[in-house]
Design brief:
The chain has about 100 residues and is mostly helical. It contains 6 helices and no strands. Helix 2 crosses helix 3, helix 2 crosses helix 4 and helix 5 packs across helix 6. The chain is globular. The termini are far apart. The model has no long low-confidence stretch (mean pLDDT about 95).
């Protein structure tokens, strides 16, 4: 568990440094989400209340937004197009309760 939290912390610091997040695994995402829940649980609780079940990728997207990433920043960090950013935002919005 401690190693997972350390992995999550390391991933989180990559986000705060605005690094590109090209290579990561599902385990990395799980570790990030677990770490973020400890760090900023109120955000995660709000997302669960607003959207219900989200994929790990959608949670990453919301974490990036919460950390001040613009759509351009998200596209660059995840090496995706702005269209993909808008599509992800739309899928999240469609889950809104």
């Amino acid at each position: 568990m401690i190693n997972d939290l350390q992995k999550g912390r390391d991933f989180y610091y990559r986000i705060t440094e605005k690094e590109r997040l090209v290579s990561y695994t599902n385990d990395d995402l799980s570790a990030l989400i677990d770490f973020y829940k400890i760090l900023k649980g109120q955000d995660c609780d709000k997302w669960t209340e607003m959207y219900g079940q989200l994929t790990q990728r959608q949670q990453l997207f919301l974490i990036l937004e919460a950390e001040g990433y613009s759509d351009d920043d998200i596209a660059e960090a995840l090496c995706i197009t702005k269209t993909s950013v808008r599509s992800t935002r739309s899928r999240i919005k469609n889950k809104q309760k």
